[in-house]
Amino acid sequence: MTEFTPFDASEYLGTDEAIAEYLAAALEDPDPQVFLAALGDVAKARGMTQIAKDSGLGRESLYKAFSPGSKLRYETVRKVMDGLGVKLTVLPHS
Length: 94
Hints:
The protein is mostly helical and 94 residues long. It has helices at residues 16-27, 32-46, 48-55, 59-65, 74-84. Helix 1 (16-27) packs antiparallel against helix 2 (32-46) and helix 2 (32-46) runs parallel beside helix 5. The chain is globular. The model has no long low-confidence stretch (mean pLDDT 91).
């Protein structure tokens, strides 16, 4: 019987371009939990300890914030995004 390991997106987010594309794709999903999960994947890829330091948030708080079903506040999302060095951009529908 073949055994599969769970897919971990954070293993494929080694460049700023990959991170930007991943987050942009996640934002297109109507379910906000998809974006929050993607943001957690990116934080994991960069290292939670480093993101905690760069965002001014506690490492344990980040793990809790990115657990499934958590309700993140915009302020927390913004701090994490600033810590990651990424920003949201709004464009009109084409």
